[in-house]
Amino acid sequence: MDMILKGGRVITASDSFIADVAVKDGKIVAIGKELSDTADKVVDVTGKYVLPGAIDAHTHMAMPFGGTVSSDSYLSGTRAAVCGGVTTIFDYPVQHKGETILGLCGSKDEVLKEEACCDYAFHCCITDLNDGDILNEMEQAVEKGITSFKCFLVYKKEGMMVDDGTLARLLLRAKELGAMINVHAENPDLIDLRTEQFLREGKTSAWYHYLSRPEFVEAEADKRVVHLASHLDTPVYIVHMADEEGLEACIEAKKKGHDIYVETCPQYLEFTCDVYKREDGRNFVCSPPMKGQASQDALWRAIKAGLIDTVATDHCPFQSYEKDWGKDDFTKIPNGCAGVENLYPYMLSAANEGKLSFEKVVELCATNVAKIFGCTDKGSIAVGKDADLVVYDPEKEFTISASNMHSDCDHTIWEGKKLHGYPVQTYLRGQLVYDNGEFVGTPGIGRYIKRAKYSKK
Ligand code: URP
Ligand code: ZN
Ligand code: ZN
Ligand code: ZN
Question: Which SUPFAM superfamilies does this chain map to (predicted)?
Fold first, then answer.
């Protein structure tokens, strides 16, 4: 045995119990009481919790957006990930019009081979079917283990938007291939209409970012996606759900047996649209925006009822000077916030405060993600799985600040947030990569995850 984590409380999606966890060649090889101590390394984790590494299903590292590029490189973004207990990220490479998707993901893979500090997979964003060539190429992508694709129903001027016909073609083709389509759902025409009106009236503060895309603007698109997927009888995964009415449509369809998956993000669980009234409101600008209290309450209710499938971050940071471009015009603020290092600590702190169970957090942030997206070796503490392990100290008090984060970003929307409990160690396939506040891994240690095809849970 290479290592034993001894005496901790092991948390899975369905259970929690005191046990030792033994690791050999990067895999979990035994779980049990009083395993023999004949390992090269024995770590006493009495009083601590042992959790599977989180899988952040939604990140944008080095993503071109709004005239710049999101500030975390693959190196700094994956470094931040492991420091927050995330051992696998899903990145979203975005196809430029005319580009092949294998070429696109291949070029990202080249960079990640050198820089990745955690394991990684791709949801490839399709913006153009290239006269149908992409529908063919999707088959090769699936063979290479890229078994999910994304489309944006917004971001027309950024050249990323697809229309409903393209979405429908992608849904049908993905079903044929055993793949999933992830959708960013907001209504672009309503956003344009409202934005033009606000700018004409001189209403340019960050608050109007929210008012240009409030609840009903997201809900319309959520409902459209659910309607299409239900009638076409295809699975679909709606990313970053933030509004109550759209969520209700998803829940209704789920209850009828449709294959609808819902992801939300910590920022929607913590903040409401009131943040856009703050002096630093532009730092919170992301799309979809934070919504009102009723939506936040609905998200928490759905989480507790098991009607939300995953929590992921939509990590997409920009530096303050870039956010400042939109001081006098909300349309010039690059959209997105940092979060990859906050996902697990935030959700686990909520569990520590009794808001939900630790098992539920493991399910939402690791086990369900692995199941939905075909990461067969990941997402739980079980014999044969990768030894992606997080040691969590439920007594450690931690206050989030830009200065104790590991992202390449000079601010955080989580500044000053007090957490009860915090990860103290992260192991990636048995190797220590984060230790008590410090990144101790090596860039390039992360591996590409070849994923299995989608099959219904
Ligand atoms: O504001 C956001 N979310 N930026 C990243 C791109 C996206 O929409 O996911
Ligand atoms: Zn999005
Ligand atoms: Zn209908
Ligand atoms: Zn995103």
Answer: Composite domain of metallo-dependent hydrolases, Metallo-dependent hydrolases
For range 26-48, the mean pLDDT: 93
Question: What DSSP state is assigned to residue 91?
Answer: E
Helix (H) or strand (E) holding 22: strand 16-24
Among 268, 316, 340, residue to substitute to test ligand 1 (most atoms within 8 Å of Cβ)? 316
pTM above 0.90, yes or no: yes
3-state SS string for 220-286: HHHHHHHHHHHHHCCCEEECCCCCHHHHHHHHHHHHCCCCEEEEECHHHHHCCHHHHHCCCHHHHCC
Tens of pLDDT, residues 375-431: 999 999 999 999 999 999 999 999 999 999 999 999 999 999 999 999 999 999 999
366 DSSP assignment: I
Q: What is the dihedral of CA 319, 320, 325, 326, to 10 degrees?
A: 110
End-to-end C-alpha distance for the chain, whole angstroms: 34
Domains of the chain: 3-51+384-439 (2.30.40.10), 53-372 (3.20.20.140)
Q: What's 413's DSSP letter?
A: T
d(CA 89, CA 64): 18
Any ligand 1 atom below 6 A from CB of 286: yes
Q: Which residues surround ligand 4, an ion (CB under 5 A)?
A: 314
416 in Cβ contact with 325 (< 8 Å):
no
Residue 448's nearest CA partner among 124, 181, 221, 120 is 120
- List CB contacts of 376: < 8 A, sequence separation 6 or more: 370, 451, 452
Spatial separation of the C-alpha atoms in residues 263 and 4, rounded to whole Å: 34
Give 284 Cα–ligand 2 centroid separation in angstroms. 14
Q: Is 287 in the pocket of ligand 1 (CB under 6 A)?
A: yes
**CA angle, corner 336, sides to 330 and 340, nearest 5?**
160
Task: Report the C-alpha gap between 143 and 159 in whole angstroms.
Answer: 28
> 314 in ligand 1 pocket by Cβ < 6 Å?
yes
Is-contact 132 105, C-beta < 8 A? Answer: no
Task: Name the pLDDT band for 457 (thresholds 50, 70, 90).
Answer: low
Non-local CB neighbours of 311 within 8 Å, separated by 6+ positions: 263, 264, 265, 266, 269, 303, 343, 347, 364, 365
Test site for ligand 1: of 209, 213, 276, 286, most ligand atoms within 8 A of the Cβ: 286
Q: Are 187 and 215 in contact (CB under 8 A)?
A: no
Write the CA distances from 104 to 140, 167, 291, integer angstroms: 13, 20, 34
- 228 CA → ligand 3 middle, Å: 8
